[in-house]
Amino acid sequence: MKKSTTGLLIGSALVVGLSGCASSASQSSGQSQASASGDRSWYQHPFVCGLAGSVIGGSVGYATSSSSDEDTGAAVGATAGATIGAMLCADNRPEPEEPQCPSFGGDIPAGAAVDAEGCPLDSDNDGVPDFRDQCPGTPAGVAVDADGCPLDSDNDGVPNYRDQCPNTPAGVEVNSLGCPDSVVLREVNFEFDSAQLTSEARNVLNGVAERLVNNPDVRVRIEGHTDSVGSNQYNMDLSQARAESVTEYLASRGVDSDRMMAQGFGEEQPIATNETAEGRAENRRVELDEWN
Asked: Is 224 in a helix, a strand, or coil?
């Protein structure tokens, strides 16, 4: 067999083999664009393909050269073959794309409003993005559920941040305050024989005021009650002064004055006996009720 024929046959066989390697590399790239180049098969690496290309190119160059320039033809062919082989098996896979908003940790639907960093907008800053927030505009600091709606622990229809009675039993009908009836403001007490609020009473009223501010459509009546010690008129005046003291304090905490009415009942509506110290303590109270 002639030299040229042998060289061409060897070169052709090697070309077929190199083409197969390159094709395999391309398929692997398409199947897993995110995989690292180190995960490719050994025969798919540019060095191996370059080496095979060198052999192919050298064989072809040798086979197609005249007797006088065989060495030159083989050298040129080897160089060209090495370059072509390395290029055929080069890792041309695209770099994996960074997620749109890594801190979000989920898919962002097309068309969702995003900020300058590509993260979905959360206009009320409740932790639930606008595109799935069922209750947009929740006041700052209000605890919400997965839909972005304020929590309602007792499921009475009045969210916790407005509910003056947050532990109403299931199924009990409530008013706009979240209470079945008027509610006794526990621990709202006064200095002895006066309408001056204690520091503990002011702390309790701070929470009452916050919930009323967040419930702007409801009006309330603040009711003052006393025990039976003293004259009827004295107790009536004292209960009125105490109800007004509570109203003034709530107004100082942001509750509109025209949403509140102060009314004293004196000793007229006891809820316990006035014959014992414990009973009289229960009767000295302030109640909050809906004012229609």
From this structure: strand
Answer with the residue of higher pLDDT: 56 or 115: 115
In this structure, what CATH number is given to the domain that contains residue 220? 3.30.1330.60
Q: Could you tell me the pTM of the whole model?
A: 0.63
Q: How many domains does the chain have?
A: 2
For the chain, where are the E strands, in sequence order?
Answer: 183-184, 220-225, 260-264, 285-290
Contact 256, 245 (CB under 8 A): no
d(CA 206, CA 249): 9
Residue 59 lies in a domain: yes
Which domain covers residue 53, as residue numbers?
3-88
- 27: in domain: yes
H or E stretch covering 78 = helix 70-88
Q: Are 58 and 74 in contact (CB under 8 A)?
A: yes
Neighbours of 248 (CB within 10 A): 15
